[in-house]
Amino acid sequence: MAEPGPGPGRAREEEPGPAGKEEEEEAAPAPKKRRPRERYVPPPRKLNTGVSFGAEHFAETSYYFEGGLRKVRPYYFDFRTYCKGRWVGRSLLHVFGTEFRAQPLAYYRAAARAGRLRLNEEPVRDLDVVLKNNDFLRNTVHRHEPPVTAQPIRILAEDEEVVVVDKPSSLPVHPCGRFRHNTVIFILGKEHGLRELHTLHRLDRMTSGVLMFAKSAAVSKRIDEQVRQRQLEKEYVCRVVGEFPEHEVVCEEPILVVSYKVGVCRVDPKGKPCQTLFQRLSYNGSSSVVRCLPRTGRTHQIRVHLQFLGHPIVNDPIYNMEAWGPHRGKGGNIGKTDEELLKDLVEEHRSKQSLEVLGIGEEDLNSSESKDCGNPGDCTKSAEAGPVNGSSCLAEDKKDPERNDVAACPLNSDISLETPDKDKELSLCGNQDGQAGEKGWEEKDPLCVECRTSRRDPSPKELVMFLHALRYKGTDFEYCSSMPEWATESWEE
Question: What is the pTM of this model?
Answer without folding.
Answer: 0.78
